[in-house]
Each structure stands twice: as C-alpha cells, then as structure tokens.
Specification:
By secondary structure, the chain is an alpha/beta fold. It folds into 2 domains: 2-251, Rossmann fold; 265-361, Orthogonal Bundle (Tyrosyl-Transfer RNA Synthetase). 51% of the residues lie in helices and 11% in strands. It is built from 18 helices and 10 strands. It has helices at residues 20-27, 34-40, 48-51, 61-69, 88-104, 114-120, 126-142, 159-172, 175-182, 190-200, 202-210, 225-234, 275-283, 293-299, 307-316, 320-332, 337-362, 366-369; strands at residues 2-3, 7-9, 14-16, 30-31, 55-59, 75-80, 108-112, 150-154, 216-221, 244-248. The strands form 2 sheets. The chain has a 7-stranded mixed beta sheet with strand order 4-5-10-9-6-7-8. A 3-stranded antiparallel beta sheet has the order 1-2-3. Strand 6, helix 5 and strand 7 (108-112) form a beta-alpha-beta unit. It is globular and about 65 Å long.
Length: 373
C-alpha cells in the first residue's frame, strides 16, 4: 500500500497524481532499463507499451529470461476483478499479455476474482460479481488469446483446485503482515484479510499441474504489486519459484485523471460503448489546448497533459514517428484539439467495432477457455 497527500495506490484504490518513480522506490521494484529492452528484443518485437515506458517496472525479469534461455519455459498469470463493465484501462494489460503469449508461446492462466469484488464491495452480491465475470470474460476472449494455451477461471468455480494453495499461503501470512501491506484494521471483514491467499494461488498453479517447478510471469498494474510481494516472500518456503512481474502504469481517464475509473463514466470508454457515445466522451475530453484558437495557434498546446494525446501514446498510435510528429505539431500550434479529437474518435471507434464483433462471437466460445472444478 502507498498513500501520500497527493496520491493513493492500493490494489483497491488508485487516485491522485501518481508518482511512479516513488512507487519503484517504495515497493522496491526495478525500473525497466535499456539493457532489459535490448534483451527482450532478442525474442521478438518490443511492444509499444514497453518501448514507451508504460510497462516500466519489473521484478526478476533477468532471472526469468535466464531460465528461458536455458530451455525452461514460463507461464503467464494475470486477471481481473469483476466489479463492472470492461473499459479500455482493463484491456491495456491484457493486450500486453497477449503480446507476451504470442512472442514466447506461453500458457496463460487468467483469474476472475469474483470472490474479491464480493468481499471488498458492500454493494455487490456474489451473483453480481459472477455475472460481471462472465461479461468480462467475453472481452478477454475477444482479444484473440490462443484457446489452446489460455485457461480462464472464476475463483468460486475453481475453488476445489485453488483452495489447497490458498490454505498453504494463508498459513504463512500473519495478520500483522496483512495489516502492514494492505492497511487493514479491526473493521476489515475476515474474508478480505484472507483474500490475498487466493490471488497468490495461480502463481503456483502452473507448477502444480505440470508436476514440476515452472517459472511464472505476472503482467499487472503496479497497484497489484503488494499482493505479489507476499507471494514472493512465501514462495520458497512452499517449494516454488518466486514469480517474476512486469508492472504497467495506469491507463488515464478522459477527464485528465491518472487512472480511468468506472466511478467517472463520462471519462471512461467501455468496450460496449456505441460510436456515438465514444465520440461524445472524446469531444468533452480534457486537453492541453489554449483558451482560444488564436491563442493555440500562437502559443501551441500542451500534449504532455492532454488526455487525447495520452490515449494515442498508450494504445492508439503504434508508430513512434507519427506520435512524435503529432507532439511537435501540437506544441507549435499547427494542429488544434478538434482535429486530434476527431482522429482519436476514428481510431477508438474502429478498434471497438472490431472488438465488439469478436466479443459477440465469444459468447459461443466460453467453453474453449473456461476451467471449472
């Protein structure tokens, strides 16, 4: 858990202006440097999210690649807490995870934590979180993961397999540790205190199913690192490798916030939004433009604070040269906010139309991916 007067980052809350450098220092992770980027390039193209520093921090990636070079394949583990509809901020780490699967041919275990969202949200029933999990699953399938190498499970429907791992973990984690890491107090329900054991379980699942130790790589938001610090602390005592991690920054909201959030629906683009709704949200987005056209032509804009530019930087412009050109045009006042909004609207609508078509087809493909007891 990390809180300051300016920002808050926990597995359940991210708000304020996030200091990602400070998080590296506080969490004790390592910045992804040029040496690691060069090494990753040996296996395949570097994804723009990694190249641009959106995926910016890691734990033990050098070790993982050493094992891979020695002929020891790894598996991927990521997930989603189903508390509502999927938005672009949720898709971002999944898109990166699919890239890793494509490059390394890795098996993926995808955890839908319906139990977590039931425990941590007073307003959600278990039925609510289960239904949301299956809606979120459609978005996972729609991204094109390999069904032969991708298995998805809801915690409550795969509990027979997960619970033995969770018990082993829970026995190693004290309440004192849980309080220190997550900020729990006497008002916290006991299910929430136990939950981190469930999120740890898939980090060992691949090894158990294979009957031997297999390295695990977890791509996730930096906000999830506290869970996996506990995982890494207790893994050796249970006879497993410590999982390696790749951390991404949060996907920004259209309102100018550092994180897209369902609590701000007008600043959030959902995978089910219509083209009209997408364009309306983008047209009201926070930008770095001047107060008037004349002023912007004269003084230029500020792309570094513009949510429209950030969307292109994160997901909707893969060409670095074009992105640099857009940045300079904005700074020089050679392009106005309206043009950028129209361009981004076209890109997002095109992406979502294809995604929604694949999402509809995914309804008939759930059994290809799902694991149940």
């Amino acid at each position: 858990m990390e809180k300051s007067s300016e920002f808050t980052v926990t597995p359940w809350e991210v708000s304020g202006e996030i200091d990602y450098d400070l998080l590296i220092e506080k969490f004790g992770t390592k910045r992804i440097d040029q040496a690691l980027l060069d090494r990753m390039a040996r296996y395949g193209p570097i994804h723009p999210l990694m190249r641009r520093g959106v995926v910016y921090s890691h734990r033990d990636m050098e070790w993982l690649l050493d094992r891979y070079d020695a002929g020891e394949h790894f598996y991927l583990y990521t997930g989603r807490g189903p508390s509502g509809h999927t938005h672009l901020g949720h898709l971002m780490p999944w898109i990166f995870t699919k890239h890793l699967q494509d490059v390394f041919g890795a098996q993926l275990y995808f955890q839908l934590t319906d139990d977590e969202k039931f425990l941590f949200n007073e307003n959600l029933s278990l039925q609510d979180t289960r239904e949301m999990a299956y809606q979120n699953l459609l978005d996972v399938i729609a991204l094109g993961f390999d069904p032969k190498k991708t298995k998805v499970f809801l915690d409550t429907e795969y509990i027979h397999n997960l619970y033995p791992f969770a018990l082993q973990v829970a026995k190693k984690v004290t309440f004192s540790t849980a309080k220190a890491v997550f900020g729990f107090d006497n008002s916290t329900n006991i299910g929430s205190i136990f939950y981190t054991s469930m999120q740890t379980a898939p980090a060992f699942l691949g090894s158990a199913l294979a009957g031997k130790n297999i390295p695990c790589l977890i791509p996730c938001g930096i906000d999830q690192d506290p869970h996996f610090r506990i995982t890494r602390d207790i893994a050796p005592s249970l006879g497993y490798y410590k999982p390696a991690l790749l951390h991404n920054k949060m996907f920004p909201g259209l309102t100018g916030s550092d994180k897209m959030s369902s609590s701000q629906p007008n600043g959030t683009i959902y995978t089910t939004d219509s083209p009209k709704r997408v364009r309306k949200k983008i047209n009201t987005a926070f930008t770095g433009g001047a107060v008037s056209v004349d002023e912007q032509r004269k003084s230029g804009g500020r792309p570094e604070v513009c949510s429209v530019f950030k969307y292109k930087f994160y997901l909707f412009e893969s060409d670095d040269r074009k992105l640099d050109e857009l940045y300079e045009k904005c700074r020089k006042g050679e392009i106005l906010c309206g043009e950028c909004k129209r361009s981004l609207g076209d890109a997002v609508v095109s992406f979502l139309e294809k995604h929604q078509e694949a999402r509809e087809k995914a309804k008939d493909r759930v059994d290809e991916f799902i694991l149940r007891d």
